[in-house]
Amino acid sequence: MLPRTWLVIVILLLCNSIYAQADSLGFAAFGDSLATADSIGYWAENDSLAATEIKVTKAEVELWLDELEANNSVSVLDHAALQRDFGDIYNNGYFFIGRPNVAMPYLYGFEQLAGVFSASLYHGYYYSLYPSVTAGANIDYVETEYPFTPALSCIQAGLGDYEHRFAKISLWKNNLLSFKGVTYKGNLLVQNGYWTDIISAETSQKHYLSYRGEQLTVEAEYAFWAKDVAMSELLPVYWINNNYSISHQLKHYYLGLKSKFGAVSVIHLKESASASQFAADISGEATKIMLSTGMNLGIMQYNAFYEHVISESDFDFPAAFAAESYQNKIGLAVAGAVPIDYTFKADLLDWERGRIFADLSKGVKSIRIGAYANLLAGENAFVDSVVSIYNPAELFPHLDVDTRREAAAYLSYDWWGSTALLAAGSKAIKQDSPIALLQAENEQIFVKLALAIKHKYKSWELQANPAWTWAKANSGMVESPEFRFQSVQNLSYHLPWNNSLVAGFSVNGHSGYYAANALMPYLIEASTILDAWGGFDIDHYFQFRAGVKNVFSSAIYSAYPVPLSTYAELKWYYLN
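^ that's the sequence the OP posted. Answer follows.
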């Protein structure tokens, strides 16, 4: 698998090297916006979908590249609103690990349904091939518009200790084969190496094709992920004493038809997992159909939708944490800024239980005061046991943790393009278990401090996104560390001709907590992981980084990701 892919990379490198990059590009570009997807209705950014021909310069393409790079930061969840808490995920290259109560991701507006795996697995998959946007209380992964005719390609590769190897190829092309309005976007990712106590490997690819006409936009996509994952990627209810490797595959076919009046989108997913420890392979598939309509009225935007799911599986997946299983969902999202900034989103699942999210805020000069709330209305019937994936005749006691309500007030302050935020609130958490000692309800007070720093002084530029969360949890609650923190910092020294020297570090960690396994509530010990790097950027098109991973050789989120190790990575864009 890997040698053939490396050959493709070498060929692409050689082909692209024959093209020169002009200072000014007199090409016709399709599209009228460099903006990414709208958080409540990305298909309806404009009232009109009319195609236009405009001239673009190299500087405009580089601005789009800067926005693309901002969406591809070290942390998966960096681009979530500062005041809200989307959980914690740690990565090395495109390997990811996280806590199981991270909110499930969305893909093209479709919610990832409950399964046997942690939400962080799907966040890692989607993050490797898509940009992300904040959609109310969720993270949605969607394709962004590439509005330029010149083809843009990118090669990213990394080498390091413990067989840390990955390579990723990306290609963007508008007006494909000279057909106006036809866009292709492709990605290929291969990687292997030691990760979470196993030798893991992954091959992923995505092929996206769209046509944007005056009245209609048509999108089609095929994506595929195949990866060896560790037992720790499963929900804790399925953990056993000895770690092992699981072969996991996920693929989908997507079709979207969008106009200024509404949209119809369909996605078909197939998923399978196999391991020598399993009694049988785990597999399932689902077809999801969504009808939606929305409009941007200037002072207000809205998006209303209905989704129907047809699913088939050889294994029952009980809902756990924030994951859901449903057949029907109807919802409404509204956002506006008069007289205050507001975001509201509500959906109803299977006509019997609902979820409501609201965020209200008001800015006065550099200060913003606001509040947000999440609410579950109704609930799934509690499933007190699940069938063992190791022996169908055995049942595991099921431990479910629901955040019934979360609300917080926040205060933010902007200074020289940077933002400091303080949020304080509480969560009403219900813990259900067939074991009486593990049944609990907790009103959990929390405080969050977060910074989004982007500051320039002469030739120096500092970017940092630290966040610290403290929560007062009942000692009997699982998956409830008292402290959690994550931070990414980069310091750049800008040289002439758009070149830069760069150095940075990241810190991820948590205090001790218990995993949600009713038979054996594993103690996840406190941990801090420190990574550091340095390198240089050449113009907007070439980046090089070398550094160290896991300086303290720590475990995190129940797994030992990789010992202290060194690595080097490069990213190279070509504009043809």
